[in-house]
Amino acid sequence: MYARITVDAYYNGLKQAQNCITYPQGGIGKRFGTIYQNEVSGITTYDQSYFESFQYLNECIYIVIFIPDSVLIYLEGTLVATVSSTGIVASEIPLIDSTVIEANFRVSSKTFAPKDLIRSALTPNVIASVGATEITLTTPVTAGLVLPVEFTTSGALPTTSPQIRTNQTYFLYTTSTTTATIHSTAPEAKAQSDAYTISSAGTGTNNAVILNSWALSTVTLTPLPVFDFNSNYDAINFTPGATTGYNITITAGAAIFTSALVGGAFEGNGGICRIITFTSTTVIRVNIVQAFVSTAAIPGTQVFLAEPAWSDDRGWPSKCSSYQSRAVFANSRSLPNGLWLSVVNDYNNFDGLEDDADNAISWYPSSDNVNFIKFIVPYRSLTIHTNTGVYSTPLSFEQAVAKSTFSMTLQESTPSTSVQPRAIDNQIIVISGNDVHSMLWDGFNNAYTSNIASIANEHLVRQPIDEAVYRDNNRAGSRYVFIVNEDGSMVLFQTLISEDVAGFSPTTLHQSYGESYFRWVAGSSDGRAWFMTERQIASAGSTELIEGVTTDSIVTITLSLFEVGVITAFKLSTTSSLPTSSPQLEEDTYYWGIASDTTNVTVYTNIADAEAAESAVTFSSAGFGTSITPWPLVTKFYLEELSFDVKTDCSYTYSGAAVTEFDNLPRFNAQNVKINGNGFGFDAEGNNDTVLIEAHGQPVDVTSGYVGFSIPTVMEPLVVSTPGTLGWKSSNLTFPEHIRYANLMFNDTVGGFVNGEPIQLQTLATTIPGDPPPPASGVMEISPMLGWNDDAGGIVITHDEPFDIRLLGIFYRLES
Question: How far is residue 765's CA from residue 786's CA, in Å, rounded to a whole number?
């Protein structure tokens, strides 16, 4: 299990790999952590939200979350804007699809016309004065935000280093309601680093034009694509009122016209028209785009009469994307197999009446079954994923798609089921049911070929609900697909085709009290990724007076917030004396109770005892004036960002003056958490929104570090199968050999256990008292011998400290 470049040995050599990633250079270690960004409010279940990243030109990346009747817009983890009264209800949220069109975030759904989320400028904010690193604004703003800004002037802008200029976007960090620092990028503004220095105020009136006005507007799509929904006019003659011109009449020999035709098309006898007015059931008015040969009556068999393909009655496209400077829509209620591409460089124009190469395109794939389009994936070609398979534009030659030559052919019969396919690493990852398919572009055959990538890990993907790609731009050869399951677990698919890297590993979130789940994931092209997580967080309930005690329980009038049989955290407070107990309970300390009925609760001093239902607290007197405050679990939704710099989840990071506690952290109340402080590891429990940093009961000063939920990591290799005493014809699985020693090679490792024994890579001589433990490299030797049989007891490596662990290989010494 020692390898370099290819990591197949690690994925295939492991029986269990929980919360792990492999390294293409050779090795397997703990996965990334996450940094808490914000709480997402306004929803009670995760499926009431649509979660996606929005790359705004080359400026910054927003996180956009659609919730019922609102859109939440985050920049660098701060909620910078909310668009209210969108009219999008909870049942429509799961139907949303999105794409980015230039500087707009476009969404589509069968139930409403496509909409664009558009950013614009606020009213110019006059710069009242400047300091060495801050500007003072005249109009108050919200403190603590990262905001894009442009500067205008009637004279000369302030002198800064670097120099600010007009018509360029910068970023403010609002240090108060009237002051802000200037930065080049949004991450720098968030970190409050590299602020511009200011040496003069400039002249004239200088304005900070903050670019943070948002609106969700229905897209003006005109003209619309057309479709003949009726085809029942073969026996009717149609007479044009002229061969050319605008507002020309078309008269039908029988009642056939309806108001639904307005915006549609009429074609026949060489003429092509756009219908502009419904006059009567026998008369419409049109603008003639291409002239009729004559004004003679045209038989219906030679006529094309169409209404707009999209409307409130016919439905709107539910899927959207873009390809080769064209907006792409697909799958309306009436035309589920419809695919529409806009005019080139005109993303709202779907005029396809003429055959110009750059005109809009309409296409309707069909086979021997009903074909409806489920997903659009623009990659090396335009691929659409239907219920029967995958179609693609031609691959044998590379050229722009054109109306007159547009075609798509069936590439693969594997349908995507419920999750948007993603393109990464020269392949498209398609999830069909619980199978993950790698659809590769084969340049030799000019086609896509598919294989099941998850066949060795088929148990990991179960009812997937979201998928995103992630490219770690700081680590060589790291390409990942994150697949979120309905049960809240996440699967990491790591791929690097050029180096034969491919493997799956499961990832979960952990809390000591309550449950936690991955719900949505989004990535960006600049090597960042975000998660929406669902966590059960302790929240104080109503206080109730203790009526008495029995030997093994507290008695109250009613335990309204204690669910019978469920472990619940609680605190005690008193105006006189606490109940006498063994061990003795104290005020303002979390204990754990299990209600046996509506009035009695059994008490434990820690959650582990409560889970095991052992070592319950016993009582000898009820005390006087004591109240109990339960801290039941409530559901919260958090925005968290992936980070390889932390090895805990939902982390709070700190850097500054020495502190002995981290404050304003209600999510850690009643939770066991891990702290990395100045390189040292600490265990703590959150209480009163605070996490104390202590060692042996004494406070410890920390100037930098982080705190978060632990990431339990498990690495368990498969049982070794080596040639037995009969050579290659046998194996130690059938002809036992004795594994005398196993040598485990680690790198950049702090902490962890092998079969319950601490990992030891340093001697006392190389450990400096008072210094934090440095990431160590070395070999740990164990003797897993259990006797002269095949069962060597296995090797299980565990790690849940706020540090990294990397296993390079395991080497065995055998004896016959």
Answer: 32
First to last CA, the chain: 21
Closest CA to 382 of 333, 436, 342, 432: 342
* 462 assigned to some structural domain: yes
CATH number at residue 489: 2.120.10
* Residue 189 vs residues 61, 174, 522: alpha-carbon distances, Å: 13, 9, 22
Strand, coil or helix: what is 619?
Answer: strand
Domain shared by 554 and 522, yes or no: no
Looking at the structure, tell me whether residues 197 and 331 fall in a common domain: no
Residues 530 and 547 in one domain: no
Mark which of 664, 690, 710 sits at the end of a domain: 710
- Number of domains the chain contains: 6
- Does residue 407 lie in a domain region? yes
Phi and psi angles of residue 543, each rounded to the nearest 5 degrees, phi first: -85, 140
Q: Tokens 């300091």 belong to which residue? A: 131
Q: How far, CA to CA in Å, does 311 sit from each of 111, 274, 317, 334, 426?
A: 10, 16, 9, 10, 38
Shortest CA distance to 397 belongs to which of 378, 413, 380?
A: 380
Residue 488 CB neighbours (<10 A): 17
Q: Mark whether 760 and 705 lie in a shared domain.
A: no
Given phi > 0 = left and psi -120 to 50 = alpha, else beta, which region is 158?
A: beta
Quote the tokens at residue 477. 């050869």
Q: Residue 282 belongs to what domain range?
A: 226-308
Same domain, 800 and 773: yes
Q: Are 327 and 219 in contact (CB under 8 A)?
A: no
HEC profile for 244-309?
CCCCEEEEECCCCCCHHHCCCEEEECCEEEEEEEECCCCEEEEEEEECCCCCCCEEHHHCEEEEEC
pLDDT reported for residue 295: 96
554 and 523 within one domain: no
> pTM for this one?
0.93
Domain-located, residue 54: no
Distance of CA 634 to the CA centre of its chain: 22
> Are 763 and 694 in a shared domain?
no
In the block, residue with structure tokens 């694509």 = 225
CA distance 430 to 537: 35
Phi/psi of residue 323, nearest 5 degrees: -160, 130
Is 530 domain-assigned? yes
d(CA 810, CA 717): 9
Bigger pLDDT: 78 vs 721: 78
Which tens digit of pLDDT belongs to each residue from 195-245?
999 999 999 999 999 999 999 999 999 999 999 998 899 999 999 999 999
User: Smallest Cα–Cα separation from 304: which of 340, 339, 342, 271?
Assistant: 271
- Classified as helix, coil or strand, 538 is strand
The reply to whether 293 and 332 lie within a common domain is: no
Which two tokens mark 458?
A: 């088929």
